[in-house]
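[Meeting: bench + compute handoff]

Bench side (C.D.) handed over the final construct sequence. Compute side (W.E.) agreed to return the predicted structure before the next meeting so the bench team could plan truncations. Sequence as handed over:
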Amino acid sequence: MTILLLGGTSEARELAVLLQDAKVRFVSSLAGRVARPRLPVGAIQIGGFGGVGGLRAYLGEHRITAVVDATHPFAEGMSANAAAACHADGVPLLRLERPGWSEAPGADSWHWADDHDEAAGLAATLGDRPFLTVGRQSLSRFVVPLAGKAAVVRVVDPPEIELPDPWTVLLSRGPYDVEGERAVMADLDVLVTKDSGGRYTWSKMQVAHERGIPVVIVRRSAVPDGVETVTEPGAARDWVVRRSTR
């Protein structure tokens, strides 16, 4: 049995440890979009598959018997490709996705957006010094609506697009503590983020609540139809182990 673990998240790294301890053969796949990713234990392949067709070819060539999609909640393209490829070839697929923040305290007061364009429009009306924590791949959606704002952008790697002169770029990687977020957000007046969930970046939400500044948050897309989903790495490990004993 060989498992393909689509990773790049803390949950994927935790699952890799559990699979290694369970003596399950697996390979972790990372998209390669971060210059210095945190690497999981075990075998690793870095880089995309080239769409559904490329993923199907990989599954067949490497005799993959099951796939666990533990990519970021906003890696919609990879999750859709995994669902399509596994469905086409009859390969079992499990989605490991951390719970979102929709049920968190204060969530009913946030400004929820269906996409980044809507989020940018909302942010433009709510403050003059927005804090953008939406990832560098989505920044292009905010350039025009927020061009005249003194935005602070936090990303892991330098943006690949030209940003407006008033913007400030912070290069850093979480997790972030509350004291650090208080310092960063001291002069900012609106937080713009995504419903990534988890604890690594929750402290900014806490600070926004403390300061009473508005939060604009992009909703997640739904998990592809027919894909079984769990929220904990241990449950994903159990799913894999059950399949290995059949």
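W.E. noted at the follow-up: The chain has two domains: 2-98+221-244, 107-218. C.D. will use this when planning the next construct.
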